[in-house]
Amino acid sequence: MFYRPADGHGLPHNPFNAIVTPRPIGWISTRGSDGSENLAPYSFFNAVSYFPPQVMFSTTTDKPDRPRGKDSLANIEETGVFCVNIVGLAQKEAMNLTSGAYGREVDEFALAGLERAECQTIACSRVADAPAALECRLTQVVELLGKANYLVLAEVTGIHMRDDCLVDGIFDVTRFTPVARLGYKDYSVVENVFQMTRPGEA
């Protein structure tokens, strides 16, 4: 099968998200200039560089109570900071609950019964029991093609790792089984890993 996205795919559901998988989930926590807090998952998320460490996520819908984008983007543009919380299997239900299209007055930390902790390099809350969290300072917002599509780029200024996920100096993902987004309503977890050595590496 071949299709041009501009012409439509003719299938019951859009296959694009099922093709580009698995995708890590950035569980983005933000704080508005008024002190209100927001927590929402984004599956268009990834790391984009080592030195300095940088990440990206994109938001692809808007809300009636925001001038552009979602609450996350609005808060980030107000304050210039956010935190990426990594989602393990134990957090999957809470993560899913925070994905709802709630009004800007809703605090998803409270809604999902999540304990929050203060970040150290930025003024923002993080999910206290997340396996890892990346404190981020905004570098750029890029308006993408299409309605309400925005790419957020940021430098990581602080990194939290849960002590039980560190094994012999290695951050061991099998200790928390990261949750990944697939297509449709599907998710997956990382339970098995294997190693390969690149050409020229020791």
Automatic annotation (TrEMBL):
Pfam families: Flavin_Reduct (PF01613). GO terms for molecular function: FMN binding; oxidoreductase activity, acting on the CH-NH group of donors, NAD or NADP as acceptor. PANTHER family: BLR2425 PROTEIN (PTHR43812), FLAVIN REDUCTASE LIKE DOMAIN-CONTAINING PROTEIN (PTHR43812:SF2). It comes from Allgaiera indica. It comes from the Bacteria. InterPro entries: Flavin_Rdtase-like_dom, Split_barrel_FMN-bd. SMART domains: Flavin_Reduct (SM00903). This is Flavin reductase. Residues 18-173 form the Flavin reductase like domain.
